[in-house]
Amino acid sequence: MEGSVIPEVRVFFDESTRTATYLVVDPDTKQCAIIDPVLDYNADTGRTATLAAERVARAVKTDGLTVAWLLETHVHADHLSAAPWLQSRLGGRTGIGKEIAAVQQVFAELYNLGPGFVADGREFNHLFADGERFEIGALQGRVLHTPGHTPADVSYLIGDTALVGDTLFMPDYGTARADFPGGDARTLYRSIQKILALPPETRVFTAHDYKAPGRDDFAWESTVADQRAANVHVHEGVTEEAFVALRTTRDATLAMPALLLPAVQVNIRAGRLPEPERNGRRYLRIPLDSL
């Protein structure tokens, strides 16, 4: 457990992308971190909006909170990040795992971003190393590198809480896919073991919920004990070889996320939209016949 202060964790669930954005608050100093914020994007019209982010901003302002960090668990493929919009209004520093550079290199080539895009993570205010510590007021945080879904996935351990991004889902839904560029099922299994080695009472918050069959409500909070006992993909007793076989077979049946091509080119830039062109409009790139 990281420090003695217990964080207050609030969730803002965006049903359209099935994303849980978290507001992690130090109850004593009123400093906070925003984790995995969502920018609304309509793929049919190409329009963006800030309704999801405005909900978070209102909570911050209403409760008199100070934003210390805007943190990404990884480069998401299912939503665009609202971190720049929130940072411009609330302050704070953006952060992600330092392996973001490897993800940027892969996708800079796919999108043909050219020499003007340098794949070194400079778009983010801070790149976290594995094991690095940080603070949110009196809250003590630690970064755990948990690759496998992508090379740059990290989990944020804050007080009694683990915010694990896409590495784990609710126990009845299982684990993240590992077939994105740079993903690897064996690496994912080993990352999950790091999380399952945390104290059993550790609260586990996931970045998404897709509702397992038979469950009516969205859910995003479990514990390490719950995951060890009941995760349908990786509960205690599941071997690495069995997991790799299961994950590889399942991934072969999955469609690509609907927003992958729009989202990744924005999220590798820390959520910054492309600059307007000569006509004042912004454009996203969609590579054809590539994935």
Can you write the helix and strand succession as a string? EEEEEHEEHEHEEEEEHEEHHH
Gyration radius, in Å: 18 Å
- What's the N-to-C terminus distance? 41 Å
The CATH topology label is Metallo-beta-lactamase, Chain A
What is the CATH class designation?
Alpha Beta
CATH architecture: 4-Layer Sandwich
Strand content: 15-25%
Q: Indicate the overall shape.
A: globular
Structural class: alpha/beta
CATH superfamily: Ribonuclease Z/Hydroxyacylglutathione hydrolase-like
Describe the structure.
The protein is an alpha/beta fold. It has a single domain (8-255), classed as Ribonuclease Z/Hydroxyacylglutathione hydrolase-like (Metallo-beta-lactamase, Chain A, 4-Layer Sandwich), CATH 3.60.15.10. The chain is 24% helix and 23% strand. It has helices at 51-62, 83-90, 100-110, 185-196, 224-230, 240-251, 260-267, and strands spanning 8-14, 19-25, 31-35, 38-42, 47-49, 66-71, 80-81, 93-97, 126-128, 133-136, 139-145, 154-158, 161-163, 203-205, 221-223. Helix 3 (100-110) links the parallel strand 8 and strand 9. Helix 1 (51-62) packs parallel to helix 2 (83-90) and helix 4 (185-196) packs across helix 6 (240-251). The longest helix has 12 residues, at 51-62. The protein is globular, with a radius of gyration of 18 Å. It starts with 7 loop residues before the first strand and ends in a 24-residue tail after the last helix. The mean pLDDT is 96.
